TrEMBL record:
<dbReference type="Pfam" id="PF01738">
    <property type="entry name" value="DLH"/>
</dbReference>
<feature type="domain" description="Dienelactone hydrolase">
    <location>
        <begin position="175"/>
        <end position="280"/>
    </location>
</feature>
<dbReference type="InterPro" id="IPR029058">
    <property type="entry name" value="AB_hydrolase_fold"/>
</dbReference>
<dbReference type="InterPro" id="IPR002925">
    <property type="entry name" value="Dienelactn_hydro"/>
</dbReference>
<dbReference type="InterPro" id="IPR050261">
    <property type="entry name" value="FrsA_esterase"/>
</dbReference>
<dbReference type="InterPro" id="IPR006311">
    <property type="entry name" value="TAT_signal"/>
</dbReference>
<protein>
    <recommendedName>
        <fullName>Dienelactone hydrolase domain-containing protein</fullName>
    </recommendedName>
</protein>
<dbReference type="GO" id="GO:0016787">
    <property type="term" value="F:hydrolase activity"/>
</dbReference>
Length: 380
């Protein structure tokens, strides 16, 4: 079994080659200790404890995980410093599995954005922009910002779900207004950058199979999720440099497809201080993670050694809320939260990690909207 998994991973660069490449493209957070926004330690959502309670009855197929707080020598991890070493190892393993990044990037010199069109919606200026996500490869995004902003404010990168109209959804230009996080967050005083996923060659055209085929042909020692992670990092590079954005107060939010993207982004990029992941399917078996535009079929092989509780733990101690509705996420996600909480508790007894289950399917009902907004208002 181990050999079959090894074959699926061996097509990627070896660990030394990968870490060299990862450092070159700016995934430096693997080597940096976590920090959390100063001044927020005594400010909590009133329902935090609810998100950390084990469901009364777990599904029969709920997983259980061994402790992550064990070092290479098999010794218990009891300090933040020791956990940081373990975190480096976990992220390096995940990076090696994800494979090559599509290009190098310099976070201090993000791509220039060109405004294609702009309008005003109440107190928000909404801009459709284009930029080179890779050298010679242009994509689009929406920027929503408070029109009358003075000084600086928090910035949020917002990822659309699997809908034909892509970035028009978070910008408030789709029918699914409950997922218009870009527009709503700007109305509440934040600056939001909503990038288009690589599987959309145009804002109103989804071509997941074809765009994935083209990407994997161009970067064969890679996975689709590596491309999504790279594009997410570039989005944060741009967001952090936008006028009016406080680069120390950055967050990420996404639903469905977007929820998957924010999980990886939060784990790998410590600039992201607050995250909400809604109905993405935190477990590798919860949704279509084995699709070629995500992780591929290697994760289905017997003995595959990883799951996403590791990435959740790597976010610690930064606030992360998992939102489920008993579709992609729900009660069966509790073991993932439980496995990651000890890493959070090393830094602070008040772990800002939890799961809110609204039990209303693959949607963002009003109660979920309220809690997502409160999570950001409290911690960002």
């Amino acid at each position: 079994m181990a050999r079959s998994v090894a074959r699926s991973i061996s097509r990627h660069p070896d660990r030394r080659q990968f870490l060299t490449a990862a450092s070159a493209v700016g995934c430096v957070s693997v080597f940096a200790p976590s920090t959390w926004a100063e001044g927020s330690a005594n400010k909590e959502v009133s329902w935090l404890a609810e998100t950390q309670q084990r469901p009364e009855k777990l599904p029969a197929d709920a997983k259980s995980f061994p402790s992550l707080l064990v070092d290479k020598a098999g010794q218990p991890i009891r300090t933040v410093a020791a956990w940081q070493e373990r975190r480096k190892e976990l992220l390096a393993q995940w990076q090696e599995f994800l494979g090559a990044m599509p290009a190098k990037r310099d976070p201090s010199k993000p791509p220039q954005v060109k405004v294609l069109e702009a309008d005003t919606v109440g107190n928000v200026t909404r801009q459709r922009v284009e930029y080179e996500v890779e050298p010679g490869l242009v994509t689009e995004a929406y920027i929503c910002r408070p029109t009358e902003l003075t000084g600086t404010t928090s910035g949020v990168v917002c990822f659309h779900s699997t809908v034909e109209h892509s970035i028009r959804q978070p910008a408030g230009l789709g029918k699914d207004v409950q997922k218009a996080f870009g527009l709503k967050f700007a109305q509440q005083g934040r600056i939001v950058f909503s990038p288009r996923c690589f599987a959309w060659p145009a804002n109103d055209k989804m071509a997941v199979q074809e765009e994935t085929r083209k990407y994997l042909a161009r970067v064969p020692k890679s996975l689709g999720m590596a491309k999504m992670l790279y594009d997410s990092l570039v989005a944060v590079d741009i967001l952090a440099k936008l006028p009016g954005v406080d680069p120390e107060r950055l967050g990420a939010v996404g639903h469905s497809l977007g929820a998957k993207e924010v999980l990886y982004l939060a784990a790998f990029d410590e600039r992201i201080k607050v995250t909400v992941s809604s109905e993405g399917g935190v477990g590798l078996k919860f949704s279509n993670w084995n699709a070629p535009w995500y992780l591929g079929t290697a994760i289905d092989e017997p003995g595959f050694p990883h799951d996403h509780h590791e990435l959740l733990a790597c976010v610690a101690p930064r606030p992360f809320l998992l939102v489920g509705g008993e579709s992609a996420d729900g009660d069966r996600g509790w073991p993932y939260i439980a496995a990651a909480l000890p890493a959070y508790h090393l830094s602070d007894p008040t772990a800002r990690l939890g799961q809110f289950n609204h039990r209303q399917g693959h949607a963002v009902p009003p109660i979920a909207e309220e809690r997502i907004e409160e999570w950001f208002r409290t911690y960002l």
